[in-house]
Design goal:
The complex is a heterodimer.
Chain A (H helix, E strand, L loop, with lengths): L1 H25 L13 E7 L4 H14 L3 E6 L3 H10 L4 E4 L5 H5 L2 E15 L7 E2 L1 H10 L9 E5 L4 H9 L18 E4 L2 H9 L6 E6 L8 E2 L1 E2 L6 H6 L5 E9 L6 H10 L2 H9 L3 E2 L1
Parallel strand pairs in A: 1-2, 1-3, 5-10, 6-7, 6-8
Antiparallel strand pairs in A: 3-11, 4-8, 4-9, 4-11, 4-12
Chain B lengths: L1 H8 L7 H39 L1 H6 L8 H5 L7 H4 L3 H32 L14 H4 L3 H14 L2 H19 L8 H25 L3 H9 L4 H12 L1 H17 L2 H6 L17 H8 L8 H33 L1 H4 L1 H15 L4 H32 L5 H5 L10 H32 L5 H15 L2 H15 L6 H26 L2 H9 L4 H12 L1 H17 L2 H4 L19 H11 L3 H35 L6 H7 L11 H17 L1
Helix pairs in contact in B: 2-16, 2-21, 2-22, 6-10, 6-13, 6-19, 8-10, 8-19, 8-30, 10-13, 10-32, 11-12, 12-19, 13-16, 13-32, 15-16, 16-22, 16-23, 19-30, 21-24, 21-27, 22-24, 23-24, 24-27, 25-26, 27-30, 29-30, 31-32
Classes of the chains: A alpha/beta, B mainly alpha.
């Protein structure tokens, strides 16, 4: 009988749904930790700037340990840190240093690499060099740079790239961007490296400036000199190029890593991976 | 008839405990939606209290500086500011209001004229278009059906696809003429948003125009009016209240839209004192910062408080909608009946000689409808051209890993979320609909309250559900980013759709069928399951397909609940990303644009398939009903009934759809 089947199905669905809901509230994440071969999942969340690099490293790790999955979810450094505090991940990814309140809640940072922040413009933009004052004045007061650039892109509050950029861009009066209460009206916010690149690389957007991770610079955009220094790994290592920030792994001081997460963590600091990080255009820890 | 036979075979039964059990369980289902709304409102309010308290209500609502990253500096006394100085949301509130108003004006203009075109001017086939009738291939092309399909499709395109279209096509275009070359801001956001509400307004307005009694049309023509005069001076005013409801529903959608707007609005908390200046609305601010806000911080609480304000907006809109409906139901004489006929016939004398404005309006409506269709077709072609070359078997079905991302996990995650969401929401939704329609006393206050809550639930912006889901399911329940959390959040989102659609089709089942069944001795439960539900199957199937569409298109609520990982999920407690979320992930790094367009193509294909499916289902059931023996079809029965003078209040969409079915029956006769 059709209707009985339907009723049964409906009731079954309700009960299954409820049961499942309760069951799900109970169980945590199940990492099977066999004695021999590593297996399980390592959950990484955090900075979008670190996503590409971590994905490459994860691929290498998975190639060695076939039973391991490294799951990477990137919504920004703030997420990585708050997840590390709440237990939403195994290792957080943060492209900025931790704040005092985050440390107070049990987060601790370990530096994996150093990354530069490149200031980028459209390839057909004539500007080749910008100074800290010019950047500061554009972002805070809306003053045009070299009569060409009148619009700027910032990242959203909480982005690691934004945090480092705001901290490191200091004008000659010693005021950093982060000390400004408000930015000028001409500054828009984009929520990912991809959005910034898309906006700036769009043909005709020659009056627009923005910043992204040095490792993410593509041919679609042009990196300009900052205070007369090229944005290169060498100049960062020499200390000439001022805009650099750490790629941090965020751990929870109150919680031990699972064996498989520990293995991945150790793997990150092997010579092989540190050299790989260097090859990718970053500076090793 | 088969149904009658089954009824005859029934023996008389006593109302038993199972009767009561059934009633109670349906009641529980209905109560669930109340509990859900109350829980969300209370939870959101409770969580926003810290912000109201610490920031101060006046500072919070009136302040114009938004600098959440200073929270630590302020609380530690590093800078000489108070929390009241850095958490001001007045620019976001003003932006939300301004944006909604602009989009509503523009969207209504396009929507209503498109509706006029669809209802009165669109030729059924190309045969009727001058110049095309001699081309044999095109002659039979069903233009009207196709156009309606196009509008429906526009309604179901995922907002992330529209948003990216905005970045890739609209912004460069706007930059060409915008002052200072600034394309982001109110102007672009308004265009994108009105594009998104046009289909809502157009299809509902069309329904209510078609529902206007045929006699008005014929009467007006008979009095010597031109067709254009009749359309714009008689039919349009007569459908006024339905159009009003359509606009309000459109406004509801505009208030809550997040993803598409976020791409083009600029996302800086400035006052919208210019059309071309980066601004941020309440929804976009929540979406861009909810991932960052530390649990328990004032920042998080402030974001939730913004969600609370959005909730208030939605409740207000629901209230206004109910008011408009009351006006419609109670004041039918205002628009219908003798008075109206009198008014029109009077007017005819005054504007008989000047039909020119209406003729112009006719061409305006054709032009605007053409623009809407052209934009949609361009969008589809654009995405296909960019995406199809990058579709490959490996990209679609290959094993996904960090080394090579493929869409295979998206298929699995999407299906898993659809399955679990429907498994939970279907019984709940159908049960609630049965309770509302079969067990409720007409006009009881309790039922009115439930309806109001369901209306409210359906209007809640999905980003608020996302915020609620992240904090409640992920953090408090400890589910973390998981398919569980994603599915539970989606249950809340699709539940109202299912309840409404089911209830609507239950109502279309004529009472005579119920009475016949009961008279033959069937129990009430048996009547419901054997007679009423099968007859209402069309609505239920439509609800399922609509819900699937909603799940496939959702991104804002899922990014922070089910996560953005690209791995294959291995159960409901692991994270998993749906197609829309995959698209979001691909565009995030800016290095995988080809994959992003390819994903957009897959999304479009799914959406088109679902749309066609809805049409087919409805056609199939319509035919079944019609083929079921001449005059006994539900519509005719309905039509023969004496209209009840005091109809209870019902959702506007239902009113509109009901009118549509009723008039459809009339015309068909």
């Amino acid at each position: 009988m059709k209707s009985k089947k339907f009723l049964a199905l409906a009731l079954a669905a309700i009960s299954v749904g409820t049961m499942a809901a309760f069951a799900a509230c109970g169980d945590g994440n199940d990492e099977s930790t066999g004695s021999g071969e590593l297996s399980g999942t390592v959950r990484l969340t955090g900075s979008t700037s670190m996503e590409e690099l971590m994905r490459d490293i994860a691929a290498k790790f998975e190639a060695i340990h076939s039973g391991v999955t490294v799951s990477i979810s990137c919504n920004g450094s703030g997420t990585g840190i708050s997840d590390a505090i709440s237990g939403g991940n195994d290792i957080g990814l943060s492209s900025r240093d931790l704040s005092s309140s985050e440390i107070a809640q049990g987060a601790e940072a370990v530096k994996l690499a150093t990354d530069g922040i490149a200031i980028i413009v459209n390839p057909s933009c004539t500007v080749t060099n910008v100074t800290a004052d010019e950047i500061y004045n554009l972002y805070v007061d809306g003053t045009e740079i070299q009569n060409t650039i009148s619009r700027a892109i910032s990242r959203e509050e909480g982005s690691g790239t934004r945090g480092a950029f705001d901290e490191l861009v200091v004008n000659t009066d010693g005021e950093a961007l982060e000390d400004a209460l408000e930015f000028a009206d001409c500054v828009q916010e984009q929520t990912s490296t991809g959005n910034v690149i898309t906006q700036i690389s769009t043909a005709g957007n020659t009056n627009l400036i923005g910043y992204i991770s040095l490792g993410a610079v593509t041919d679609a955009v042009k990196a300009v000199q900052y205070n007369g220094v090229d944005a290169t790994v060498e100049n960062i290592e020499l200390g000439d190029y001022a805009l650099s920030r750490p790629f941090n792994l965020v751990l929870n001081a109150n919680r031990d890593l699972s064996p498989v997460a520990q293995a991945f963590y150790d793997y990150l600091f092997t010579d092989e991976i540190q050299e790989f990080i260097e090859d990718e255009g970053y500076i090793r820890a | 008839m088969k149904k009658e036979e089954t009824i005859k075979r029934n023996t008389v039964r006593k109302a038993s405990t199972s009767e009561n059990a059934a009633k109670i369980s349906f009641g529980i289902c209905a109560a669930f939606s109340i509990i859900a709304v109350v829980a969300i409102v209370v939870f959101v309010f409770w969580r926003s209290l810290p912000a109201f308290r610490e920031v101060g209500l006046f500072n919070f609502l009136g302040g114009d500086v938004w600098r959440p990253s200073w929270e630590d500096r302020v609380t530690s006394g590093e800078v000489d500011y108070t929390l009241g100085d850095i958490f001001g949301i007045s620019p976001m509130i003003v932006t939300t209001l301004a944006l909604t108003a602009c989009a509503a004006v523009l969207g209504s203009m396009f929507g209503i004229f498109t509706a006029v075109f669809m209802a009165f001017y669109c030729p059924k086939t190309l045969e009727h278009v001058p110049g095309l009738k001699h081309i044999p291939v095109l002659r039979k092309f069903p233009l009207k059906g196709f156009f309606e399909q196009v509008i429906n499709l526009l309604a179901s395109i995922p907002s992330i696809v529209i948003g990216f279209f905005g970045v890739a096509v609209l912004l460069p275009l706007v930059a060409k003429f915008a002052p200072g070359g600034e394309p982001t801001g109110l102007f672009s956001a308004m265009l994108i948003l009105s594009l998104m509400i046009v289909p809502t307004i157009a299809s509902l307005s069309k329904n209510s125009m078609e529902a206007v009694s045929r006699e008005y049309y014929e009467g007006s023509l008979g009095l010597g009016n031109s067709k254009d005069q009749t359309v714009f001076r008689v039919m349009l005013p007569a459908a006024r209240s339905g159009i009003m409801s359509a606009i309000i529903l459109g406004v509801g959608r505009a208030v809550g839209e997040t993803m598409a707007v976020m791409f083009v609005i600029g996302n800086s908390s400035n006052m919208p004192d210019s059309f071309f200046k980066p601004i941020a609305s309440l929804t976009t601010t929540i979406a861009k910062e909810m991932g960052y806000a530390v649990n328990g911080s004032i920042h998080q609480s402030a974001l939730i408080a913004m969600g609370f304000i959005l909730l208030l907006f939605v409740l207000l809109i629901t209230g206004v909608l109910n008011f408009v409906k009351k006006d419609k139901v109670g004041g039918d004489k205002l628009f219908g009946g003798k008075i109206h006929a009198h008014r029109t016939s009077e007017k005819i004398y005054t504007y008989k000689q000047c039909g020119v404005p209406q003729t112009i309006l006719k061409y305006v409506s054709i032009a605007l409808a053409a623009i809407v269709a052209a934009v949609l077709l361009f969008m589809i072609v654009f995405i296909c051209v960019r995406g199809i070359p990058h579709l490959s078997f490996t990209f679609l079905f290959g094993e996904s890993s960090n080394a090579r991302v493929t869409l295979a996990p998206a298929f699995v995650s999407t299906l898993m979320i659809i399955f679990m969401t429907l498994l939970i929401s279907l019984p709940l939704g159908i049960g609630a609909a049965i309770f509302l329609n079969e067990y409720s006393k007409k006009g009881s206050n309790f039922i009115k309250v439930i309806r109001l809550f369901i209306d409210a639930l359906s209007g809640v912006p999905s980003i608020v559900f996302g915020l609620f889901g992240k904090i409640f399911f992920c953090d408090i329940c400890g589910l973390g980013y998981s398919l569980w959390a994603g599915s539970f959040t989606m249950v809340l989102i699709v539940l109202p759709t299912i309840i409404r659609s089911t209830e609507e089709s239950l109502r279309e089942v004529p009472d005579s069928m119920r009475e016949a069944s009961l008279a033959l001795g069937s129990s009430k439960v048996r009547t419901i399951f054997k007679i009423v539900l099968p007859a209402a199957l069309r609505g239920i199937v439509t609800a399922i397909i609509l819900s699937i569409g909603r799940i496939v298109g959702e991104s804002a609520a899922l990014i922070y609940t089910s996560g953005t990982t690209i791995q294959m999920p291995d159960g409901y407690s692991s994270t998993g990303a749906t197609f829309s979320v995959f698209m979001y992930v691909f565009q995030q790094e800016g290095l995988q644009m080809d994959e992003m367009y390819a994903t957009a193509v897959v999304l479009l294909v799914i959406v088109i398939v679902l749309d066609v499916l809805v049409t087919l289902v409805q056609k199939k059931f319509d035919r079944k009903i019609k083929g079921d023996g001449g005059n006994t079809n539900t519509k005719t029965v309905k039509e023969e009934k004496i209209p009840e003078p005091q109809k209870e209040s019902e959702p506007a969409a239902v009113v509109v759809v009901r009118q549509a079915t009723e008039s459809g029956a009339y015309v068909g006769k």
